[in-house]
């Protein structure tokens, strides 16, 4: 899809403060050692320095090594033990990296994507979620069962799908849809 270009605007300290207010204070600490609770206590002048850092990252496409280290945590899949088969790995990135991403997503990207995103997509939407898709399907199935209409379905589970997507193609699609180059570089 080709959308209207998104105007690039530098992140402001007040935006970081607002994002920090909305992030769960108990979220995990990344390898950089910062916690959300600590960042919330910083004055706007210090958050302004983080804005300078984010601007530099967006202009160069290079994250400092300390902010690009992910810690791997084993999360239980359900009830039971903690063997490899019973857990899934989760990467915990720097709180500063998550702050940048959440601010960009909250402030600009969700509104921009609404200008071109199909109604069939339910992820990262303010007014729609996965349950909306499932409710529609449930009603269609119930209707088919009540009317005797033939019914067929398919369920796919794509293993490690997002790990295998070709990033260069995704980045080109983002550019084509109008995402500012600084955002693409910083991803």
Question: Which keywords apply here?
Answer:
187 residues, mainly alpha, two-stranded antiparallel sheet, 8 helices, globular
What's this model, at a glance?
The chain is mainly alpha-helical and 187 residues long.
List the helices and strands and how they pair.
Blueprint: H1 13-22, H2 36-40, H3 44-60, E1 71-76, E2 87-92, H4 95-113, H5 130-147, H6 161-164, H7 167-177, H8 181-186
Antiparallel strand pairs: 1-2
Helix pairs in contact: 1-3, 1-4
The neighbouring-strand order within the major sheet is: 1-2
Instruction: Spell the H/E element sequence.
Output: HHHEEHHHHH
Query: Strand content of the residues, in percent?
Result: 5-15%
- Rg: 20 Å
Q: Count of helices? A: 8
Largest sheet: 2 strands, antiparallel
Q: Rough shape?
A: globular
Q: Overview of this structure, please?
A:
- Helices cover 48% and strands 6% of the residues.
- The protein is mostly helical and 187 residues long.
- It has a two-stranded antiparallel ribbon.
- The radius of gyration is 20 Å and the shape is globular.
- The model has no long low-confidence stretch (mean pLDDT 87).
